[in-house]
Amino acid sequence: MLISENATYLTEMKEGKLHTQDGIFNFDDIAKIKFGEKIKTHLNREFLIAKPNINDILWKKCNRLPQIITPKDSSLILAYTGISQGSFVIDVGTGSGFLAIFLANYIKPGRVVTYEKDKKILKVATENVRLSGLSKFIKIKYKDATKGIAERDADLVTVDIQNPERVIRHAYKSLKIGGFLCIYSPTIEEVMAAAKSIRKLDFSYTNTVENIVREWQTERTTRPKTMGLLHTGFITFARKVK
Asked: pTM for this structure?
C-alpha cells in the first residue's frame, strides 16, 4: 500500500507501471523496497510503503453493493458479543461480504459460514472474499437461510436480510448456549417485528442500539463536522440462555 499525507493507493503490481494523479510508480522500484520505506513518483512526490490492513482491503480493493454493514457497526458487534479468535459465526445475508470478511479477519483461525440466496450478489461476495485473502476462513453457501440453517453450536449468528423474523427460529437452533443473535435492521419496523419473534424463544439480555459516529474538525477551530457517519441502522442483540 502506498501512503502519503493526501492520498493512498492499494495495488497488486507485479510488473509495469502504476499511473496516478500523483505521478508514475515503477514496479521495479517498488519491488526493491520493504514495508516502512519510502518511494517517489516521477513527479518527486513521496509515498510510504505499508502493509494494508483489513479496512484498507475492504475500502480500497473490494467491490461494494449499495448497502453494507460498516466497520463502525461491525466493531460494535465484536464489542457486544465478545467473540474472539477461534469463534464460529453464521452470517445470514452475505451481501458484499464486508461483515463476513471483517469478522473472519478477527476470529481466525475460527470460521464464518455465510448464507446468500441471490446469485448476482453471491458473485460479488465470492470475489471480495478472494481479494481479502481469507477464503480458508469463510464458507459461502448459496441457500435461503429462512428455510433452515444446517450448522450448530455457533457463537454468533448475524442477520442482515429483509424480514429477519423469518430466520430467528433457525438462528436459535444454530446457536450454542450463551451464543449471541445479532440482527441489523435499516428500519424500526423491522426491529419491532424481530423483537416480537425473539420474545417467543429462550433469549435473554435483548437490547437494540444505534451506533452514531460524529467527527470533529480541529483545523483553525474546534467544532463538530457538519457531515458524519451518523445513523446507519439499528442493531438488536439477544443471547441464548436455554
From this structure: 0.85
